Amino acid sequence: MKLTEYDDQTVIRLAQKGNKHAFGVLVKRYMQRAYYVALGFVGSHDDALDLSQEAFVRAYRAIKRFETGRQFFTWYYQILRNLCFNFNRDRKKNVYRFSEMPEQEVLQLKSTDSLRPDVILEKKQVADRLWQAINELPANEKEIIVLREFQGFSYQELADLLSIPIGTVMSRLYHARKHLAKALQGDL
Amino acid sequence: MRNENINEKERCRQLMMAVLDGELSRIESDELQSLFKKYPDLKNEYLSFKQLKEVTNTMAFKNPDKEIWETYWYNIYNRIERGLAWFVLTLGASILIAYGLGEMFADVWKDANLSTILKIGIFAALAGLILLLISVLREKLFLRHHERYKEVKR
After folding, report:
1. C-alpha B17: how far from its chain's center?
2. Would you state the CATH architecture of domain A102-188?
3. At CA A151, angle to CA A186 and CA A43, rounded to 5?
């Protein structure tokens, strides 16, 4: 049986015994999800790549402390989240010159088929304003709206990731959406 | 009565989110409809959320170049390996420095040509340097174990 065919728990047990390739299987399973979560936090492709990889390195170093039976991604998410929060905090402390500010296209249209160029342009502008509005949300609202809208996590998964009850997931989403609807009033 | 209204409104808001995200059961859907009849202002709010949802449904995170997935694990593997290399290098360098300092202490102590005051000066400077190093290391280790994420909002 190939390593890739084993379930998470078996692969984790092998990684805990020092098998780097077993850990590689975990990385390959979750790398895309990890990257997009980091992108939601930091809004820059290069930084998202770097932070998600660094979080995997830290996860590898701490893998012996992982309690089997838990979900790997829920555990990894805490490491990644802390790294991204620290990164954003440090970025705020640094005085950026205007030209150095990270300004990248983060959101894109899922499909532009059968759309006129002027409609595409208009929708791209809405995407930019939406991303700007998301960035102005309080940190916990930004986190939950990004995980739900662009990562597709279910309420149960959100509750597990954020260690909050499902009722709180829904209330937090309500407040986030209320702020976003207000910020995008003219675009809706 | 007022508290009951607040709770009902909060419940309605939660159900509004669940219906938008496709997480509502049939029974909860009926409950939401009856709450909408009671609180029409929330129904209007729901309609604006629905419009927002329609906008976000058409958008996704921009995909990175496909090549990054091919080298993703390779980069992590290198970082893990380099971490070990740095640890071994630091350990080796620490042993060499400690050995060198020990030898230097012994030589200075035995050197009859150096005056006592000069020996005391050299020992004091070195002792201060060692204490500083220990202090910095202790601080780093303490921070690593206790306050690594002190400024992180949970």
Report:
1. 29
2. Orthogonal Bundle (1.10)
3. 65
A112 touches chain B (CB under 8 A): no
| Domains A1-92 and A102-188 agree in fold | no
Digitized pLDDT (tens) for each residue of chain B, 154 residues in all? 456 676 889 999 999 999 999 998 889 999 999 999 999 999 999 999 999 999 999 999 988 988 999 999 999 999 999 988 888 898 999 899 889 988 988 888 888 888 889 889 988 998 898 899 889 888 877 766 555 444 444 4
Q: What is the CATH number of domain A1-92?
A: 1.10.1740.10
- Nearest Cα neighbor of B33 from B54, B11, B59 is B11
- Chain B residues in contact with chain A using a Cβ-Cβ cutoff of 8 Å: 10, 13-18, 20-21, 23, 45, 48-49, 51-52, 55-64, 68-69, 72-73, 75-77, 79-80, 83, 148-149, 151-153
Residue that has been written with the tokens 């209204």 in this structure: B5
